[in-house]
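Listing S7. Sequence submitted for prediction.
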Amino acid sequence: MLQKIVELNYAIILNGKIGEGKTTTANKIIIEAKKIGFKVKGILSKRVYESNQLIGYDIIDVETGGSFIFARLKTKIFGPDWLIIEPLIYAFSKKALKKANNILKNSVKKLDNKTIIIIDEYGRLESKHLGFFNGFNSVINVESKKGVVLIICRNDKVDELTEYLMDKTNKVMVCEINEIESIIKILTNISED
């Protein structure tokens, strides 16, 4: 089966529960993908703690390693530069949303078969065509149909995301965080083509 699913533009949905290790697993995949010659682009969401309390998330540009503030508890922010969506507990930096979407849009430039784009994560905002949706959509609708996209989401978004991707990519694979070896095997097969 693995040899048959190596058609490109390939979407891998990595799903799990909140705090289960989706981003940690994505980091492991990034390391392995680089070892086998993939260019890795996109964004990761990193948890931010203050006095052992989760207060928000920062975005990491996977290609450059740079990071910037993305979301903070509404009680921790002030000013008009923040997007507040009820009933969510976090406010989102408008500048960060723009920057993250631009990173995703730019990730499809010079796309080839050995490029993997990480999108962490497709969630409630993206379901409403907010958040990273514009950048996500640019990646999914790229005309070259090259490369692999790894999309991280919570379990409750898998069906919605799979349905959205079905007519936009050649192949869609849904994996849980304990299936990292399957993902690496697929990437290895692609790198050998």
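Caption to Listing S7: primary sequence and predicted structure tokens for the chain studied. Residues 1-8 have pLDDT under 50 and may be disordered. The first helix runs from residue 22 to 35.
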